[in-house]
Design a protein that fits this description.
Radius of gyration: 24 Å
Distance between the termini: 5 Å
CATH architecture of the largest domain: Orthogonal Bundle
Number of helices: 13
Number of strands: 0
Number of domains: 2
Structural class: mainly alpha
Strand content: under 5%
Oligomer: single chain
CATH superfamily of the largest domain: MetI-like
CATH topology of the largest domain: MetI-like fold
Length: about 325
């Protein structure tokens, strides 16, 4: 088990190195170089030289790469071109807002999807199954920003129950924080829930049709015991896989939803940095999002062995 965990951690670190290297090469491969892209073709030679020196682009490529990797290890992403702030401060100021939305979205999504998927599978071709299926199709069809607009209109404008603009930090209190992120979190979480619910339903139906489940039924094992003791453990394995992969949906949904609710999170920072050609900030946000995805996949891989210890990878026996 320790050997497997070590291999997965090393693989995750390799992927992050690969992403960082790709970002490094991609930035320096732009036509005219990043400096000309930032300053425009009409920039004076003095301005180009100054910015190249500021970004460390006047050094040999191998020196730039060594400095780039070294800075990443200590989380030094440089200085923002537009605001002249530390990139780390800019990103750390925005990250809690996006992660707050993502956490609420994941909690809401799983809290809705798992019970709904179980009910749908255990009441196949009954009204509750049809209702859950229709709700899932609607959830998949409606993008997060559209759901966010509807929620803001109903709960913010018509009934004035929740704020529809801005973000309240958790340090100001749990209830004010939750009020500021519940609508964007639900907006992102419902499409996420729709995908997970459909996966939960199909996976559980497949498990319930297995031979060992029919044998348990023939032996008189109660339906509740068959479901919770035997079926769910196996049915959750592909669900966890999809839930981890679909984290990308949560992050992408957060980008558009932040615009709807006026929250200055990573999504808005990323869009602004791209439009302003603020490449140090763009690089940092991309690497952070990639790091979250890699870490999530690592957690999903490790969760397999917790749910079903019989699972082994690469022929490992322990």
């Amino acid at each position: 088990m320790r050997r497997y965990v070590a291999k997965r951690v090393l693989y995750a670190l390799f992927i992050m190195w690969l992403v960082a290297t790709t970002v490094f090469i991609g930035l320096r491969s732009m036509p005219g170089g990043p400096v000309r892209t930032m300053l425009g073709q009409e920039a004076t030679p003095q301005a180009v030289t100054q910015l190249r020196s500021q970004l460390g682009l006047d050094e040999p490529l191998y020196v730039q790469y060594a400095d780039w990797i070294t800075d990443l290890v200590v989380l030094d992403f440089g200085t923002s071109i537009t605001s002249n702030q530390s990139v780390r401060e800019v990103v750390l100021g925005a990250a809690p807002k996006t992660f707050s939305i993502a956490i609420v979205a994941i909690v809401v999504g799983l809290a809705v999807a798992i019970p709904a998927g179980i009910l749908s599978a255990t009441h196949k071709r009954e009204p509750i199954d049809y209702l859950a299926t229709i709700a899932a199709f609607l959830g998949v069809s409606m993008p997060a920003f559209f759901v966010g607009i509807l929620l803001a209109l109903v709960f913010g404008v018509w009934y004035n129950l929740l704020p529809v603009v801005g973000y309240t930090p958790l340090s100001a209190g749990f209830v004010p924080w939750l009020k500021s992120v519940i609508l964007p979190g639900v907006a992102v979480g419902l499409p996420y829930a729709a995908i997970i619910m459909r996966m939960m339903r199909s996976s559980l139906l497949e498990v319930l049709d297995e031979q060992y489940m029919r044998t348990a039924r023939a032996k008189g094992v109660t339906g509740r015991t068959r479901l919770f003791k035997h079926a769910l453990q196996n049915a959750l394995i592909p669900v966890i896989t999809v839930a981890g992969i679909q984290l990308a949906l949560v992050l992408v949904g957060s980008v558009t939803v932040e615009l709807v609710f006026g929250i200055q999170g990573l999504g808005r920072i990323l869009v602004s940095s791209i439009l302003d050609l603020d490449y140090p900030v763009t690089q940092a946000v991309i690497l952070l999002i990639a790091g979250v995805m890699v870490f999530t996949n690592l957690v999903v891989d490790l969760a397999y062995t917790v749910i079903d210890p019989r699972i082994r990878y690469g022929g490992e026996g322990g």
